[in-house]
Amino acid sequence: MANFSKIFGLAGTAVVFAGMAFGQATCTSPTSQVNIVRTEGTTEQVAPLTFTCTYGAGSTPAAAAGSASLQIFVSLPVTSKVLSTSTGATEAVVQLNGGTPVQGTVSGTTISFSGIVLPAAGPYVFTVSNVRVNASSLGGITGTPPMITESGFISGSAANLNPAALGVTQVAFAQNGLGTSSLNKTFTSNGAFPIGVGSTSGANNFVICNAYSPRIDAANLGTSGTPAGKSLAFVVRVNENTATAFKKISEESSQVPLSGNTVANGTRFAVNFTNVPANVTLYVPAGILT
Q1: Comparing 181 with 259, which gets the higher pLDDT?
Q2: Are 114 and 69 spatial neighbours (Cβ–Cβ below 8 Å)?
Q3: What is the model's pTM?
Q4: Which residues does 128 contact at the CB level (< 8 Å), separation at least 6?
Q5: Domains located in the chain, CATH noted
């Protein structure tokens, strides 16, 4: 008899918990379109992550308005811009049913969102966006482009949202953005380098850095974009590894950021000169010559 009592007791417990869970929100597997990011970038933007939690009509217990908390775990360090030093709120946001963005706080590879207001009944469509990562931690890529992923955990304060783990979802894959660079000393008859194609994004073009001497030639060598009164000493060319790897400000701002948050610049490069002899001064232009 004792054994039967234990069996019936466990069965009764199972029925109670099943009743409590009945009708509460269940969440779908997240989806994402997947962005291509550059392995050299420290603030590369991954694609938005979307998932839906539903709540059945006539559920028991009755639906109630409440709030939810969401944690997103990213496979790389998160570098979304901090917009408030007092609260730690960043540009990374979650939106419920396309409504008011809720800003997240970042700690390493984790983004935390709290106070997401839930209406009395679903469906609840969550979209996480404006997430940027440090892809340079991947190093140079020589084989298959690695995936960048997000997973998560959501819970609610009301009876209408069960705690749920969100599966691992690919939001980007990384490729080398920079191609080979070269140092070119071939000039035209007037001492200028034939630049040729401009550096418009999207055509596997190159960025040019001209090093010149203001003392060698005082003539105007402006036929190829050379500043007047300066002769070219050499040209550094940096090629795109893939089309559109070099982006303008408008292209870096493809996702609409929060109000007051704007991308400061397009793709930037650092050119380092080493083994420069003593008493030698290098002159370089302030911007890209096209």
Answers
A1: 181
A2: yes
A3: 0.71
A4: 48, 49, 50, 70, 72, 92, 93, 94, 111, 113, 150, 152
A5: 26-175 (2.60.40.740), 177-290 (no CATH)
